[in-house]
Amino acid sequence: MLSQDVIKQHQAAGRISQTCLLQGAKLIKAGASMRDVLDAIEKNIQDMGGRIAFPAQISLNNIAAHYCPTTTDDIQFKEGDIAKLDIGVHLDGRVADNAITVDLGSHDDLTKASKEALQAALKIIRPGITLGEIGKTIQETIQSYNLQPIRNLSGHGLGHYQVHTPPAIPNVDTKDATELEEGQVIAIEPFATDGKGAIFESANPTIYTHTHDRATRNPYARILLKTIKSYHGLPFAARWLERIHGAGKTRIGLKELHRIGALQAHPPLPEQNDGLVSQHEHSVIVQDKPIIFTKLD
Q: Domain span at residue 242?
């Protein structure tokens, strides 16, 4: 069981996260800079007293997740884009994770499909509900729009200073009989697509997590590690390091740290058939009356 203090920390992180998500969504307009929008969101999180649980990220069109620009990227939104904004906030390691889709085109059904799938899943969350039942609800809702859920992406648990822990919350009917338990903290995030319904890992990651301590003689890697360790094992953006250490040193240092197994890379995740993708997400504490702590009252 979670203590009341821990619940209150999640709720406080959730209020910051949802406020910044909704404010950030309003900044996503044709002609705006993605990098500037993400910088503004991250500044807002910190100005509100929150800590960044993972880099704010915006994945466009056929990219489902994990796109985060570097300092040299100057991607501008354009008419017709469908943008997934995903942000995370923590307070003393208690994480809130939420996402929204901003439609700059005419993708009404695609946007509705993931949003309504999330709403339908939230209605059945309780101790004892099975993972398979949640996935079935999400799948049926998305397919009612003649679209597909992304089967190899899922929701997840939220741990202390951890943004991805068991259980995996499926977006399809897996028949998994594992039951949710009282006090679990989870994030539910349906993805809908007009493509195949699967993603793959691409190249050129800009988001990393420090997973192992490894010895290195590379001076740039050693300098970067001192900064990376301040993130408490939470994901970080290459852009953050570039602004501290410079783009060249960061590129060399990250390459070396990844090569020796100190870092896990999180590359962008395109849809396999280049289908457009939408996403919506909330974080929940599992109870008989669940606490959706990234939903503002």
A: 207-266
